[in-house]
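Last lecture ended with a question: if I hand you only a sequence, what can you say about the shape of the protein? Today we answer it with a concrete record. The protein is Saccharopine dehydrogenase NADP binding domain-containing protein. Below, first the input exactly as provided, then the predicted structure, then a couple of comments.
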Amino acid sequence: MSSNRAYDVLVWGATSFTGERLVEYLALHAPPGTRVAIGGRNQSKLAEIKERLTAKHPDAVHDIGAMDVLVGDSANLARLHEIVAQTKVVASTVGPYTLYGSELVRACVAEGTDYCDITGEFPWVKQMHRELSEQAVRNNVHIASMCGFDCIPADLGCFMLAQYANSEIGQPLLHAKGSIVGIKGGVSGGTLATLVNQIGVEKRSLWKRLFAKKRTNRHSGGSSSSNTEAARTSYRRGIIHYDDTLQRWQTFWIMSMINTQTACWAGRVLNYGPGFSYTESMTARNLLHAILIALGLLYGVLLMMFSVTRKLLYALRIVPRPGEGPSEEFTRQGFFSLHLEGFTAKEKVYGKVSGTSDPGYGETITYLGESALCLAFDRDQTFRPGVYPPSVTMGSALLRRLRAKGCQFEVGLLPVSATVNKTFSLELKKAE
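The predicted structure:
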């Protein structure tokens, strides 16, 4: 990548709910002298963002005012290539990425520009990997998708466990289990639109995976004197099960659909251990609560899948429309805590990943902002070119950055204290 580019980071989709918050984050937290540009389709809306942020943060007037505005559209490929060729890194918040993200990634790979996003659309990321990863390697381009709450905690959490198991006890990591033990967060209309699109793309393969999991659980009995095999049988759990370490019932966690696939992919690429696997669930107060959570999530997803019921939910203001999201006050009140338990052939390691703001917006903005800055300023020989999850692309460098920003990533040989008294709270909040 050329070192004489005009910008360090371009925020693409800056007029979106998440995009504007990313612009604000970079204005307040990027190192002095960082050259940031904002981009999208609408010149006037991009200018309005600068005006709003300038009024909100008078101490950052210089940094915000220095942000150039780049107008373009994925329908105009020549202009898109011209834009991405001016920056070292593109941070994209334009979803659903299956619909609006492919041409931008293709342009970045062709122009030698690094890229990060916050998609949770795993099939799309794998499509980009199949289509573009070899070319990205040839061009030494780093395409890091899933750099938000989808899937940094699970992805970097497993990376952290695998590193610790290898360095401290000299054993490969065979399996990791994640448990959401506390969460409070809001959902934006854009995230819901992406989820609906994702379910439409994945619904057939999702049913196949659910039924395959049930068959696996049904035939998982028996024990073995082999430590490895004994551990492997303990990995197989039902959607609702009791966790002996946390001493709590566990239930279905909707983001496990993307987090498990991402962590397992990274584990194969980085060779955490033979046949590495990852499972993820959510803590409930008791068995009845676990059943009610699973049924509630399933019911909510079904309502959003069909256009008639989805339009009714929008009309009644029960869920936010695209462009809406949780208020800043609600974002500050959010939190999450992910407890991790890792298995080697003979021992266990434990970890905790947590955040002190809304996971989908407060923590996600930190994750994406630091991912973009990591690609812009920290690249070295450990970075892996190609189309991959963030742990594969940036690994230890990103982990160091996030820890320096106060994001909690703890690991050890004893269970890390887990906050299990805070109950699950996922709320749909619209922008004020």
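Comments.
1. The radius of gyration is 21 Å.
2. The mean pLDDT is 86.
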